[in-house]
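I have been asked to look over a protein record a colleague put together. The record follows directly below this note.
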Amino acid sequence: MCRRYIFATALALFAVQSLFIHRFGEPYPAIVMPRFEGSGVYRARGVEIETYEAAFVAANGGATTVTPRVLLQEFPVNNHAAIGYFALKPTPTQGESVKTVTWLGRVRAAVFPGFRKRPGSSEYDDRLASLREWLTRRAATLAPGRSISQVEIRWWRENVRVTGGTPQVIQREPIGTLFVELER
């Protein structure tokens, strides 16, 4: 008898909560599993991800585009995301120092040189030189016989939905490009 009462109460609460969800939105905590729509990376009935592609641009204007898996094939697959995010993602202020406009800023810069310098800007040149050298070797492998002048790592924000077991890109917008001039 007690089990039937608990079961009937749970069904009644489920029905009341379903009505509440349709009228006011999802409460927390809830008996039913939430849809997660519009929270985190779930937007517009899809999953929002960041992805990139590498374009090896030839001196004559043509380009050879490769996926991250092909670009990074010499590294273990489980390291591809970290390498892409930390080594291949553009940041607009890398390598720049803050401009001192006011007289106090100029005095501070004279007394404490490097005080307002962006973090990592001195290491950025070393990382860029290493990346340039590696991309030069990859260009020789991925685009043999072509004179590659620069590599563009093009980043995209995509909204992806899986239908029928196949991912489909719903929306794609560019979010930045890392330009690397290659050694000649």
Q: What stands out?
A: The longest strand covers residues 148-163. Residues 36-181 form one domain. Residues 94-98 have pLDDT under 50 and may be disordered.
